[in-house]
Structure to design on (369 residues):
């Protein structure tokens, strides 16, 4: 039996004996009703159960289970540990919304490697199209950046990206509860069991990460895909990087529905940021249409990219004129009045109350409803 299998079996045995309180959360809907993301409940042969599949048409598609406030909110005041299964082959962002003694806080988990203020990189090894299980102690994550804050309730779970989600569970974190395991006449407390499980999980992650990194280094040699290099040497290299899904030129048949394939943007530290899209496509008129993608990081650095959509009649050859599309780039922060749809976006780095007042934003606009 291989080393990985032994570690996995040991970890599964220990977790199965802990008897933690669990509740399933599987009610999903689109956060923005005017988007085109799809939610499907299907049977996954690998997972062995019915799971939820998300198919996103653009980077704005956001799926939510629960709500920040109101009747749809989980309002779970007892459990502070969350566990979920996922299967993604592209980058994703997961947000857990909580209410704390100091106001609302969003804990953000990405498929990257970097950590920041209330956001955590889970690792690139998660986007390989295989089922993975993630367990996070929300209060421990909150204390890493706000040690004197406490969670009152856990209210919602949000996802951006295309992939599959299995069962979501909230687990009890009561430390006074003890579990006895007989092994060589030794009695292990619940705290020791959790430490063993945590060590096992870390070893599994490290082994898988090393194997994935080795495989990635081989794949990169033959890959012709666009790679975003983050080497901040001058002011231009500090600007965000934008990667257009399906390239910067799309041919589209007249009269057929058009769905923007979207784009991904990261700042110079590799953290995913929001993208604004300007421009429209008239599917009923033959013409060339330009969609502009704008990404601005929290430091005010801005990058733009353009995509050309050629609407043409079926069967007719399309010969677009080759011409340069000039886009103005600004490294200064956009003015407040330019942020017209801020209330529709979920910030990847939640603003605290002081920052929101400095920006002139109402507290209601700091989070979704």
């Amino acid at each position: 039996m291989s080393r990985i299998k032994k570690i996995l079996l040991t970890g599964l045995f220990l977790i199965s004996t802990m008897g933690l309180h669990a509740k399933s959360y599987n009610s999903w809907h689109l956060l923005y009703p005017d988007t085109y993301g799809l939610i499907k409940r299907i049977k996954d042969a690998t997972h062995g159960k019915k799971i939820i599949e998300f198919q996103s048409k653009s980077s704005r598609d956001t799926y939510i289970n629960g709500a920040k406030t109101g009747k749809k909110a989980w309002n779970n005041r007892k459990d502070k540990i969350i566990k979920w299964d996922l299967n993604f082959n592209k980058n994703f962002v997961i947000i857990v919304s909580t209410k704390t003694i100091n106001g609302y806080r969003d804990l953000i988990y990405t498929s990257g490697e970097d950590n920041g203020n209330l956001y955590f990189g889970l690792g690139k090894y998660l986007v390989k199209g295989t089922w993975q299980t993630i367990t996070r102690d929300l209060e421990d994550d909150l204390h890493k950046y706000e040690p004197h804050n406490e969670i009152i309730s856990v209210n919602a779970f949000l996802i951006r990206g295309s992939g599959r989600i299995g069962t979501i569970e909230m687990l009890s974190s009561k430390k006074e509860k003890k579990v006895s395991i007989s092994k060589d006449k030794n009695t292990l407390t619940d705290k020791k069991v959790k430490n063993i499980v945590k060590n096992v999980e870390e070893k599994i992650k490290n082994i898988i990460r090393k194997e994935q990194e080795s495989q990635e280094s081989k794949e990169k040699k033959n890959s012709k895909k666009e790679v975003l290099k983050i080497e901040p040497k001058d002011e231009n290299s500090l600007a965000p990087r934008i990667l257009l899904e399906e390239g910067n030129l799309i041919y589209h048949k007249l009269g057929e529905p058009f769905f923007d394939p979207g784009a991904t943007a990261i700042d110079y530290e590799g953290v995913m940021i929001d993208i604004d899209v300007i421009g429209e496509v008239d599917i009923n008129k033959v013409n060339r249409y330009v969609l502009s993608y704008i990404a601005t990081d929290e430091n005010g650095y801005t990058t733009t990219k353009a995509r050309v959509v050629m609407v043409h009649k079926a069967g007719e050859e399309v010969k677009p004129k080759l011409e340069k599309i000039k886009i103005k780039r600004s490294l200064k922060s956009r003015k407040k009045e330019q942020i017209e749809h801020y209330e529709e976006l979920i910030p990847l780095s939640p603003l605290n109350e002081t920052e929101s007042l400095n920006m002139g934003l109402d507290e209601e606009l700091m989070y979704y409803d």
